[in-house]
Amino acid sequence: MKQSVRKKLLVVGGVVLLLAAVCAGAFFWYVSDYYRAEDTALAVLAQETGISVQDNLTILSPSYPTDTGVVFYPGAKVEAEAYLPLLDQIRQTGVSCILVHMPFHMAIFDANAAEEVFGQFPQIEHWYMAGHSMGGAMASQFASQHPEEIDGLILMGAYIYGDYPDEKTLTVYGSLNQSVEDNIDYTENIVEIEGGNHAQFGNYGPQKGDLPATISAEEQQRQTVEAITRFLQDAQ
């Protein structure tokens, strides 16, 4: 009887281990299939001054910095460097930009990454959380849970997730990104980019399920930077 029970336990244990291995394999296969940054984005890293990589952060420092900084969370399954062209334009306005490289390229695995950023830059007095798509959702979650640590929230291809004041939030989305528009139930600081889509806030090519934009990525990002600049100026 004992031997029979032992055999059953061994079989059950073997099945559990097999299922765990299959699940682990499926997970790593899923996260390894991500959107790579285009050469246009990677070229930003070749700049001689103002950009550095430190652990899981890419730091974009302005030539004439202000006391304002932005922590940016990338979209799900998107290589962080894809957002360098956008952030490079923002830093040229005097705003320090901290691009977070997320575990497995998914912000959901480190939504509180910003906590380890703030203390490294004591010269920055005004912090803003920002992010694209899932990165925006996780930035919004962080802002909702740490309202005393940040001055505002900037969302791209995303909407407020959690309880954060819409008057302190800038929401930018492309007119072809209907799923975002359908979920915006507030009216403050909303910028719709005509002809823009979901993916073109970054430079990583077409995204599955996304409609083709009728404007270039450069134009979509230019309008986004203009909106962010106005938002930051109005907040001061």
Report on the architecture of this protein.
The structure is a single chain. With 236 residues, this protein is of the alpha/beta class. An eight-stranded mixed sheet has the order 1-2-4-3-5-6-7-8, sandwiched between helices. The model has no long low-confidence stretch (mean pLDDT 90). It contains seven helices and eight strands; from the N terminus they run ααβββαβαβαββαβα.
Structure at a glance:
The chain contains seven helices and eight strands. With 236 residues, it is an alpha/beta fold.
Order of strands side by side in the largest beta sheet? 1-2-4-3-5-6-7-8
Contiguous low-pLDDT stretches (5 residues minimum) are none
Averaged pLDDT, please?
90
Distance between the termini: 77 Å
Number of helices: 7
Q: How much helix is in the residues?
A: 25-40%
How many separate domains make up the residues? 2
CATH architecture of the largest domain: 3-Layer(aba) Sandwich
How do the helices and strands line up, and which of them pair or pack?
Layout: H1 2-32, H2 39-42, E1 51-54, E2 57-60, E3 68-73, H3 84-91, E4 96-100, H4 115-118, E5 126-132, H5 134-145, E6 152-156, E7 169-174, H6 178-181, E8 190-193, H7 217-235
Parallel strand pairs: 3-4, 3-5, 5-6, 6-7, 7-8
Antiparallel strand pairs: 1-2, 2-4
